[in-house]
Design goal:
The protein is mainly beta. The chain is built from two helices and twelve strands. It comes from Hibiscus syriacus.
Length: 189
């Protein structure tokens, strides 16, 4: 809502709320410059956005971006703690529900889709975020093949984050530094 001042927004007749760009957080940042539009408010095409501007905003600066939910990612290190869902508390004693608590990268496609392609895979010191993952100074050459073996054609998969699974790591990683697995896959019907 950059460029606007103060008002209301509707998507296909559904009110998504007020915006007030001069309302600042304690860090002096605008708090209402971005809005999430629920998918249930959207039609396949011909969507109507109505902006009621109470002051003197500039609608030409409003930007609408879409998110591709068919690209999913996982970033997990060798020493990533196990999920709390893998434990139970009985009479004040916490016990694991499974025998294997080693870290795994987990991926699950939405809407009964399956993993059609591995777009990025690196076991080493990758960095970035989903959609912008980058290899770091070191990576295991077998990273993509390992992920493909575990995930291609599946709707959900788990990849063990273990050095033995990926083999040698090439590059300038310190020998005892923990490694991270970063994966980005494409889901499709």
């Amino acid at each position: 809502m950059i460029g606007m001042s103060k008002g209301l927004v509707w998507i296909n007749g559904n009110n998504i709320g007020r915006y007030w760009m001069s309302y600042l957080s304690p860090l002096k940042q605008t708090t209402q410059s971005e809005y999430h539009i629920p998918r249930s408010f959207l039609k396949p095409k011909d969507n109507l956005i109505v902006i009621f501007e109470e002051e003197q905003g500039t609608p030409k600066d409003v930007y609408i971006s879409t998110a591709n939910r068919d690209t999913i990612c996982s970033v997990v290190s060798e020493f990533h703690p196990p999920s709390p869902r893998l434990f139970k508390n009985k009479a004040g004693i916490v016990r694991p529900l499974v025998d294997d608590l080693k870290p795994k990268a987990e991926l699950t496609c939405p809407d009964q889709k399956k993993i059609a392609a591995v777009e990025f895979a690196s076991f080493g010191d990758p960095f970035g975020s989903c959609g912008a993952l980058v290899q770091g100074n070191c990576t295991a050459p077998a990273s993509k093949q390992v992920v493909e073996k575990h995930c291609l054609g599946q709707s959900t998969c788990k990849i063990p984050v273990e050095p033995a699974e990926f083999g040698n790591v090439n590059g300038a990683c310190p020998p005892n530094a923990p490694k991270t697995l970063a994966v980005q896959v494409l889901c499709s019907k």
